[in-house]
Design a protein that fits this description.
mainly beta; 1 helix; binds zinc ion
């Protein structure tokens, strides 16, 4: 009954941490290094998830629902268009270069540290938006 088995000061072992991070972006609102242009991307300050690079707008196919990092594909996602959001602002349309899935992600133009590149969004907004699913 009273067998306290090795619960001494050695218990804390960093190596025992389960390997749950299956992608370099991590979970939720972490910073990451852009795999397209190499920019070190900082987390957003305003609560939403940073899921694309502010400099080149490329993203990665890691979310099933934005922020959950539950998608196993992990392919790079190319920005293929933008559309005005009904709530104001812009949504960027990304297409995965590996599996072809498309995702709509809110542009983060107003982030005070690393806002999205407006020139790129503007250029994308002039492209005809292809809607294939
Ligand atoms: Zn980038
Ligand atoms: Zn994909």
């Amino acid at each position: 009954m009273n067998r306290s088995r090795d619960q001494g000061p050695h218990r804390r072992s960093q190596e025992e941490e389960p390997h749950r991070r299956r992608n370099p972006i991590g979970r939720g609102n972490d910073g990451f290094v852009c795999e397209h242009c190499g920019l070190e991307v900082l987390p957003l300050l305003q609560g939403s998830y940073r899921n694309h690079c502010p400099a080149c707008l490329w993203s990665r196919h890691v979310d099933v629902v934005p922020g959950d990092r539950a998608e196993a594909c992990g392919g790079l996602m190319e920005p293929v268009g933008v559309k005005g959001s009904s709530a104001g602002g812009w949504d960027i349309v990304h297409r995965c270069v590996r599996c072809g899935a498309t995702r709509v992600n809110r542009a983060a133009l107003d982030d005070p540290r690393q806002g999205d590149a407006w020139e790129l969004i503007e250029a994308l907004s002039r492209l005809p938006l292809r809607r294939d699913s």
